[in-house]
Amino acid sequence: MRYIGSLCNRSTKVAVLLTAFIFLTHVSSAQNVTLKHKQITLSEAFQEIRKQTNVDFIIKTSQLDKVRPIQNIDIQNKPLKQALEKLLEHQPLVFTIDNGIIVISDREKKTPLAPTVQKNGKVEIVGTVKNDGNNLYGVSVKVKDSPSIGTTTDGNGRYILVVPANSTLIFSYVGYANQEIAIADKRRIDVQLSPDQSLSEVVVVGYGTQKKTSVVGALESVKPETLRIPTANLSNALGGRLSGVIAVQRSGEPGADGASFFIRGVSTFSGATNPLILLDGVAISKGDLDALAPEVIESFSVLKDATATAVFGTRGANGVLIITTKTGKDLNKPRISARAQSQISRPTSIPKFVDGVSYMEMFNEAVTGRGTGEILYSQDKINGTRLGLDPYVYPNVDWYNEMFKSRTINNELNLNVQGGGSKIGYFLSATGNISNGLLRKFDLNSFDNNVSVKRYSFQNNINVNLTSTTKIALKLNAQLRDYYGAGVDAPSVFGDIMNANPVDFPIMFPFTGIDRRDVQYGGKAGGTVNNGFINPFARMVNGYQNGFQSTLLTTIDGAQKLDFITKGLEFKALVSFKNWSNTTTKRTSGYNQYMINSYAPDPAGGYTYDLVMVGQPQNLSLGTETGTSGDREIYFQPSIEYNRTFGNHTVSGLFLYNTTDFNVNNPADLISSLPRRRQGITGRATYGFANKYLAEVNFGYNGSENFATGSRFGFFPSVGLGYVLSNEKFFTDLFPAVSNLKIRGSWGKVGNDQIGGGRFPYLSDLKLDGASFTTGIDQNTTYTGPTYLQFANPMISWEVAEKKNIGVDLGILNNKFNIVFDLYQEDRTNIFVDRSATIPNVFGTAGTKVYGNVGEVRNRGFDFSLEWNKSEKDWGISMRGTFTYAHNTVLKNNEPAFTKYRNLSQIGYSIGTNLGYLAERLFIDQAEIDNSPLQQLGGFVAPGDIKYKDLTNDIDGLNLINSDDRVRMGYPTTPEIVYGLSTSINYKKFDFSFLLQGVDRTSFMISGFHPFGNQGVRNVLQFIAEDRWSPENPNIFAAYPRLSKLDNLNNTEASSYWLRNGAFLKLRSAEIGYSHKFARIFLSGYNLLTFSKFKLWDPEQGGGNGLGYPTQQVFNLGVQLRFN
Fold first, then answer.
1. For 55, left (φ over 0), alpha (ψ -120 to 50), or beta?
2. Going from the N-terminus, what domains does the chain have, and what CATH number goes with each?
């Protein structure tokens, strides 16, 4: 036998001394031990015990080879003997104490006795059921597939049961995980039950945490790793993954491509509709959320009903999203992780335009249809363009391909380290992301006009255990954003393409100069821009802008246990400082455009031409505009908490105060220089009995500067109840497959002080200098004198959301299959609106703001999630489905009475529904036009134009279609239904996952695309060329009506003819990975497939003409490394 003093030397000694003994020191075995690890080897456990107690160990190296790692060990200040019993209870080893030395030896193998087999083929089984050495009374012992055969344990944890041979026993007990054990040849089965981890799972709620089983509110949590998708914005990962969250991505522009999201839809038509977002307890913006790396997130929760959000008072009406970041852990050595990925990004779809020949032929068709005898595009020009004789004399410009690249490359890197000890823990993370745009660079420029966003995010958290009862944490979140782009905003660059046709001028004429100032851009006289028309390429490349933003959020929070006063009492405090700053520089220049004055063929087969400048010479030097802005916010939040269990009774309480002080760094006027302040108190009390009956009461009492003294503070209470039927013995007997069934209900009121309008709506705002106002029935009398810009309304107050929720949580088969269902109704009242439109101008109030709380909206719906998990030795599968339905109805709004034309009212319709004319089809001929109601929408009506339905003839008998014939139509622009299905499969070292996500019950109007426009130069989308009404194709259901050179208002007004179904289903993301040791390589994609009836562009972008910055399809290759 040989003694080895240090475990660290064991690995080098084993090769020489295969039967050596290790761990020999000396100390008394009466000392206490603390161990807490998710996984630890026996060797590491003995080493920690040795450090804590200086105990002597003797163990053979060969014995260590037999043992398996210990999972989820949690020993808190237990005597050494109890700690060793816990460590070795499932190992083939035992210990003895000999003169203060711990001797480890092999557990004696008992020869199994044959079970007593009765004549009827049954056996008698006996045993005990314990937890952590304690006998468990009332444990259910049943035969699998024969639940009628069973018994329960007595006061000593013992049971006796006669069962069929070769049966399997199921041991179940409230609060503990079920165990299944096959009898085989055993006649005695002793069982150690472990607490059900799902019952101890903690979720983040408002201003704290609760056990998931005790929650009575509607909240949704998601694992942070599922939020890692190949886009630069975290919000793009929310849609379809979280029930109750409605999210859509409207743009693909770098830095502006995050999703817009709402919790349970939209419940107000005034002011803020976005949820409150909290990072480690401090409010942040959606932009701050988008910059977070998934690696820094510890928990991600969405609070939906009043019980969950009422504690936030005036800030919680639109729901709350809570993110907590990772903290340090007591690890043997630092855990270092890295992720690097590179992406190819390209548009999901782009609008398609006609070529030059088709454009001219369609223009001629439009002019001919008017019968005005105007000059047409000559056949010579059409033929020359078709033959491509000369790109300058006969231009045929594909503006989209000339200005934009087909794809771009983006990169992202994250590095983080986590570690610490028993006193100090740390988590440090740094993320860098470079997202590039699609704009082409002009080689003659010394600058790059393409969009590029470089973003750097840092999360540094340090937590310190000053004493066993005192903790403090410092958290620092820093975000740096460097934006670079064209002098024109990226969406405008795309929009310019619609206003330039392919044949009027080339991009530029042959370059013969020295630098960018000598470029002769193509142009055409007669427009409104320097007597010409916009050249999209010239506008894109003649300037740039860049901006630098920095956000610094520093949070210090501490906790002091007050067990010396009463057990379970704790004081906490949080203080944060946030500073945001922004600097911008914009440099742009003018550009000169030229057009061909005359041309002639040359002997070489080309053309000679002379150019003339369009308009006046422009300043070609880069001008400079700069700007700075910023703000800062201080937040303070002390609280007292209480949490204690007395037998079957569990009680908790919270009392909290908070105050916010917000200031603008560079105020432009007196009003903006004044601080914005909030303050409030919050309370919560919860009670649970035997994990069966649950109750919770909350309140928020908040004050806001937006309201006068008498209305400045509001009280927002809520109450919730829960009943866990699955913890009733009668229920488990009747439904043994149901492992969890909880029924929840809540009611409460929540406020919203982000109501729109200017500051201090309870005060009057007067203009004294140079002011005048007009009165009179005919508005014909004007007086000079003070003018009210805003009338005071001291009764202005909060929006109030009254929320009701009923929910069910269901778990089946040991919670392998889970369902969470919630049914809700929200009544939003006191909605803030400007009433000036309903006050007659005869009183001289034109242009005066008159605010009031007059709007009301009801929002109803349901949301649910389904989850199934199965895990075997070499493979596992997890599936999760979510569904959200949110339908709102406007009950009251500031609008005319509409006693005559009720079809114009928004009352009874959803927020965001379109108002337009009801189109029947296209007119067949002039005779039908003559025999139809007169359409007074603008322009002259001819065969092939849109025919509308007269909705008001029964009311006014005018046989006339005008603006009174409009009606609410379709669904709102914000989807009422969002659903998703995510699946994750792993097989040995391979893993595969995907997310299908869709939306429904949403509509949008397409507009701004009608050919030729008011100036006769607008481009033409391909779908119009493919299916339009014409004398040769008199299809009264064609996709596009008769062409017109100028906008024909009869055909361009918002109507059901241009209303489109915005529903879609997307393969939102997919990923396949391979892991080996410390590395994982993965291939992933985003926006991979889209299924929709709408084909012109990505329906997720919404209405208009599709020429915003297109959403992106992403292909990503990455690697993850982890060293621990």
1. beta
2. 7-106 (3.55.50.30), 122-195 (2.60.40.1120), 202-330 (2.170.130.10), 338-355+396-426+483-626 (no CATH)
